[in-house]
Structures are given as structure tokens and as C-alpha cells.
Amino acid sequence: MTDDFSGTTKTINTIHYPNRKISFIVLAGLFFIWGFIISMNDILIPYLKNVFELNFFQSMLVQFSFFGSFFIGSLVYFIISVRYGDPISKIGYRNGMSWGLLVAGLGCLGFYPATVFHSYGLFLGTLFCLGFGICLLQIAANPYAALLGKPETASSRLNLAQGINSLGTIIGPLLGGFLIFEYFFDPEMADASAVKIPYILFAVVFIAVSLGVKMTPFPEFHKRDSPVKGLGVFKYPQLILGVIALFLAVGAEVAIGSLL
């Protein structure tokens, strides 16, 4: 049984697969991937700041564009949910994760024309696209981690997946810093060419993993009743306070890490 935040309890049917552990391993890999790519912004900020001779305000537009897509994407998703019901419950968690990875891959590919045209605006646009894909991926993957097993162990699965996500945020700056500031860095080049090859490689990984998710035997979850519409979610004060807490926590985390 599951609570849909509307005061009504809905039943979710599941199709059980014997290799649910494999599904969770793949899902945990997605948490690692988006932790990795998000932490890469901390490498882009000083690099693009130097290449385009930006001040701190201009260089922090990297995070503004990336996480701005999270806000806009989540807001659009919320409005659609209120009017028409939860989109993920209609298209499926597997499709949501796959599409998120594909959009993120297209965002990474956008680094190629941004480098060729030497345009900071194009970099910000591709980061917005990349962030939008990661936003969709998180919308599908976070609740799916809770659903992928017994309800009493849902928090444990989420904690484990988030721990793997943190591992990605550790490895991302180390590998990204090596690729951008050492391996592909050419002091004689005045453009941002050092980010071109790494992000093309990231795009290939995202697109390949998107196809892999489509072929992974993820258990399917279906609600017997149609998704509930409306603003019943606001009846839960702990959710409102949780959103405020996340706003403050993520703001401090991103700002401190990026500026330092």
C-alpha cells in the first residue's frame, strides 16, 4: 500500500523479477552518474572563468543555469501533476530514467558547438539542457529506489543509493580536474577546447546507459487507480518544512563548494 499525499490510500501492483538485485545495482549506478556530472560544475567554474575572463557573478551562472533547470523542470512537473496527474506513473519509471539520461547526453553533446563558437552563452544553454535531463532522472530514480523492495527497507535503499551518489561527487572533480586541467589542457589555446572531448565522452556514456536502462529488467509498478490530481500534498506540513530545509542545505552546499 502507498500514500499518495491526497488522504487516499492507493494500491500498487508489482511484477516480481528474480533479479531485482541487478535492477538496484543499475539504479545505484545512475545515482553515481548524476553525482559525478553535477560535481563537474565545480571544475567548469574556474576553467570557464579563466577562459572567458569572467567575474565571480558571471562564473556562478554555471550553477545558476544548471540548477535553474532543476527548478523550472520541477515546477513544470508539479503543474502537470496538479492538472493531469503524476506523469511518471503514466510513462513508467524506466522510461522516465531513460529519457532523463538521453536529454542529459544531448546536453553534454552541446559542449562541442559551444567550444567551436567560443560562446559562454551556449555553454550556459547546454548546462541548462544537461541539468534538465538530470532533473528528470532524479524525479524517476529517487521514488523508484524506495519502491524497489520491501517498504520497511525503503529508507535503507535510499541511503545506500545516496551514499553511492556521494562517491560520484568525490570522483567527479578528481577525474574531471585531471582531464580538463592536465590531460586535454593546452596553454597555447585561448578557447575552451579542453572540455570538448571529456563532455563528448560523457555524452556517449549517458546515451549508452540510457539504452542500457531500456534493456534492464526493472520491475514495473502500476497504480490500480488513476493518478490523483490536486494540491492535497500541501496538507502535510512536514513536507513543506522538508522543502525549506532542502532549499537551505543545497544552497549552502552548492555555493560553498563552487566558490571555494
**Which bin fits the share of residues in helices?**
over 70%
- Strand percentage, roughly? under 5%
Note the quaternary state here: single chain
How big is the Rg?
Answer: 19 Å
Largest sheet data: 2 strands, antiparallel
Strand elements, count: 4
The 3D shape can be described as globular
Low confidence ranges: 1-18
- Read across the widest sheet, the strand sequence of neighbours is 1-2
Tally of alpha and pi helices: 11
Mean pLDDT: 84
End-to-end CA span: 45 Å
Helix-and-strand structural type: mainly alpha
Secondary-structure element order, N to C: EEEHHHHHHHHHHEH
Q: Could you please describe the fold and organization of this structure?
A:
- By secondary structure, this protein is mainly α.
- The chain contains eleven helices and four strands.
- The strands form two sheets. Strands 1-2 form a two-stranded antiparallel sheet.
- Strand 1 and strand 2 form a beta hairpin.
- The protein is globular, with a radius of gyration of 19 Å.
Topology:
Elements: E1 2-3, E2 9-10, E3 12-14, H1 20-39, H2 41-51, H3 56-59, H4 61-84, H5 87-91, H6 93-109, H7 111-116, H8 120-147, H9 154-183, H10 196-215, E4 221-223, H11 237-259
Antiparallel strand pairs: 1-2, 3-4
Helix pairs in contact: 1-8, 1-9, 1-10, 2-9, 4-8, 6-8, 6-10, 8-9
In short:
The protein is mostly helical. The chain has 11 helices and 4 strands.
Brief descriptors of the model:
mainly alpha, two-stranded antiparallel sheet, 260 residues, disordered N terminus, two-stranded antiparallel ribbon, 4 strands, single chain, 11 helices
